[in-house]
Amino acid sequence: MKKVIIDVDTGIDDALAIAYAIRSEALDILGITTCFGNVSVEEATRNTLQVLEVLQAADIPVVPGYAKPLERDHLKGKALHVHGENGLGNVELPVPESRARTIAAEDFILDNLRSFPKQVTYIALGSLTNLAAAIQKDPAIIELVDKVVVMGGAVRVPGNVKPHAEANIYTDPEAADFVFQSGIPLTLVGLDVTLKTLLTPEDVKVWEELDTPHSRFLADISKFYIDFYMRENGLAGCGLHDPLAVGVAIDQEFVKTEPLYVRVDLGEEIGKTYEVGRGEEQSLIDVALEVDAEKFKDHFMQMIVHGPGV
Ligand code: BDR
Ligand code: CA
Question: Cα(26) to centroid of ligand 2, in Å?
Fold first, then answer.
């Protein structure tokens, strides 16, 4: 099993990604760090604890991270119109019995990368604030991490939170630009591919018909997200953004990547991810530009409810 740390701003698709990661049994989840983004960091932590309890995986450590961007006040507000007032599609869950850890997120990340050199994949499903803070604290982690998979950016397609910017990058653009340039081995799974993997009302129907507590939970939280995407974007379903990044951590073959130099605009089109030429002082990152949507979707739908056993 691949050791991973998952960083989240839970969020409906973060919750689906966590469920997929757990049920696939392909990943050894060392811990989940939380960040502001779709909701506040406190809400992201609460939601993550609740999701883990529903999934009967409350033994996975949850570690609260940053409450705001590294170098500025909030640029972007919460995404309650996308994820619901509570971040989980307004599905009410019991107050979590489990508690979050008290260690700082960057220390949790550093401790684990030092304990398991070259063995840990870091999966970022929210802003890159916690990762940037960890690199700033100890740049040695650039060599210690096996790889980083980031859900974020829109390199050759339009953005979502702004016409030019994707939400996770826009949430903390300075942190994202710093991470992209740090030289850390990074695969970027952005809107270029995630909007080609949609969860549709028909998929939700499959979960409803299965009618287990687990499948009902997945169906209940997904409806709000799907409604938003169909209404606001005219799509046939919602983008499986965060689940696809987990999919890529499980099997890189779900996507085709190209090594590109990518920067984050910190000026007029803040949060925009764009390619630059080789001349610049800059690290290459692997950008996912194509996805085998059918293969990924089949794997996701199979694993998230049945796991690898059936
Ligand atoms: C990303 O932004 C958040 O709203 C989602 O959880 C996902 O991580 C999609 O742009
Ligand atoms: Ca997210």
Answer: 21
Residue 294 makes CB contacts below 8 A (sequence gap 6+) with none
The residue nearest atom 4 of ligand 1, judged by CA position, is: 38
> What are the tens digits of pLDDT across the range 178-220?
999 999 999 999 999 999 999 999 999 999 999 999 999 999 9
pTM (whole model) above 0.95 = yes
Atom of ligand 1 lying closest to residue 239 CA: 9
Is any atom of ligand 1 closer than 6 Å to the C-beta of 14?
A: yes
> From the candidates 7, 9, 13, 177, which is the catalytic residue?
9
User: Domains (ranges, CATH) in the chain?
Assistant: 2-305 (3.90.245.10)
Residue 172 is among the residues annotated as catalytic for this protein: no
- Ligand 2 mean position to 14 CA, how many Å? 5
Distance (angstroms) between ligand 1 centre and the Cα of 295 equals 22
- In the block, tokens 């489990």 appear at 98
Catalytic residue check, 241: yes
ipTM summary value: 0.98
- Residue of 241, 286, 292, 299 marked active site: 241
Ligand 1 atom having least distance to the Cα of 171 = 2
